[in-house]
Design brief:
globular; alpha/beta; 405 residues; 5 strands
Length: 405
């Protein structure tokens, strides 16, 4: 079925589940009626259609009847090398996606929010223009390993999709993991969250913060508990947990100051907690190169991001963005994590989670702190801040955050 006859952008979606295709269709009809889109429930049907039609982009499920998604996309690459290939998958299938990393250009999880779907398609199409930096697939290929999504997160997701589940069920799942429970309660009771009473159980945390936010906070806490103590003792990671909590609270306050709705406030808090997770992944992948990064920061007096780009070829924002897209987090959170050092590279010029995180990162540490390439007054992107309606320099915003109740 063709949604629009425009030939500007030609897309094809392949999935054996009609409800998935309906979801893609609904998102695209409302958000991008200017795109020409076809939907197929079988890969062979699309391959036959490609004999007479050209497509700019193909989105395929990782598992197709009769022909695996990996084999299908490999055939698409052979038949039409110029067509951008995107693989779609359920969170449980992350390892299958990694197995076929050589045949896709981009990826997307199912189910998918409309804004994330549009963002992935637009970013995927920009691959032809070769934007600055490495693509997601190039980042993944250059890493020895990426952490798989924690089993507890998948279990919480399943409970959320079960209409018969109760909020107490979420608390029960978290309570089974003692280390995770400790980390989660530390977050919830922190001054940055600002609750007016002490929370002593995961069940209370769910009641106060809501199931969705607790689920994602649990993901962040689990990331830290997955790292070896030796990695966390590296100088620039030693205080990362406390720093992340501080940035999380500041981002939450900034979004409230800017009049953001509950969802935006929650996403700002989550982005703040997760924004530096890429540092953990880089350090776990290659501790030796991580030491080179720290030495370069000291010797050349350059930012951590610049040092990472020189040593690894990409930075912790790139890695965090890839990881959290793989794990199916909100598009706004993924964008914020990816661009928190370089917000001007984002196509989004509205007040956003990214804008709140960009400022929160800087006001959460002393001005002039140069250890391991941290921030200074000059690092705030004033042009970007003005473009999203956030006037004022770093000192102004630090005062606003400190004064916010």
């Amino acid at each position: 079925m063709i949604l629009n006859s425009s030939k500007q952008v030609r897309l094809a979606f392949v999935d054996k589940h009609s409800e998935v295709l309906d979801g893609f269709k609904h998102s695209l009809v409302e958000e991008r009626p200017d795109w020409s889109v076809r939907f197929f429930d079988d890969g062979q049907h699309l391959l036959s259609d490609m004999e007479r039609r050209k497509y700019d982009l193909v989105v395929s499920d990782i598992h197709l009847p009769g022909l695996s998604g990996g084999d299908f996309l490999r055939t698409v690459a052979q038949k039409a090398p110029e067509t951008v290939r995107v693989v779609s998958y359920e969170l449980e299938r992350q390892e299958d996606v990694m197995t076929h990393v050589d045949v896709w250009n981009q990826f997307i999880t199912k189910p998918c929010e409309p804004d994330m779907l549009i963002s992935v398609v637009e970013e995927s199409l920009s691959i032809k223009e070769k934007p600055p930096g490495l693509s997601a697939v190039e980042v993944i290929k250059n890493l020895k390993r990426l952490p798989t999504i924690p089993a507890i997160y998948l279990e919480l997701n399943r409970l959320l999709s079960d209409p018969n589940s109760h909020p107490d069920d979420i608390g029960d799942v978290v309570a089974r993991d003692i280390a995770l429970t400790s980390s989660l309660l530390r977050i919830v009771n922190s001054a940055q969250i600002g609750l007016r009473r002490n929370v002593s159980t995961p069940h209370e945390a769910v009641s106060f913060l809501g199931v969705d936010i607790v689920k994602t906070l649990a993901l962040g806490a689990k990331l830290f508990t997955m790292c070896h103590d030796q990695i966390l003792r590296l100088p620039y990671l030693r205080n990362l947990w406390d720093h992340s909590m501080c940035v999380s609270g500041a981002a939450r306050k900034i979004m409230k100051v800017q009049g953001g709705n509950r969802k935006m406030v929650d996403e700002a808090m989550v982005a703040g907690l997760l924004h530096d997770a890429g540092k953990l992944v880089l350090a776990t992948n290659d501790p030796q190169k991580t030491m080179e990064v720290m030495s370069l920061c000291r010797e050349k007096e350059i930012s951590l991001m610049k040092a990472e780009d020189l040593v690894f070829g990409f930075n912790h924002g790139d890695v965090g963005g890839v990881l959290f897209r793989l794990w199916g987090l909100s598009g706004k959170v993924v964008e914020a994590v990816k661009f928190h050092h370089v917000p001007g590279r984002s196509l989004n010029k509205d007040m956003s989670v990214l804008a709140a995180l960009h400022v929160a990162e800087m006001v959460s540490q002393p001005l002039g702190e140069g250890s391991y390439g941290q921030w200074s007054q000059e690092d705030i992107n004033l042009e970007y801040m003005q473009s999203v309606g956030m006037e004022g320099d770093l000192v102004d915003w630090k005062r606003r955050v400190d004064d916010f109740e």
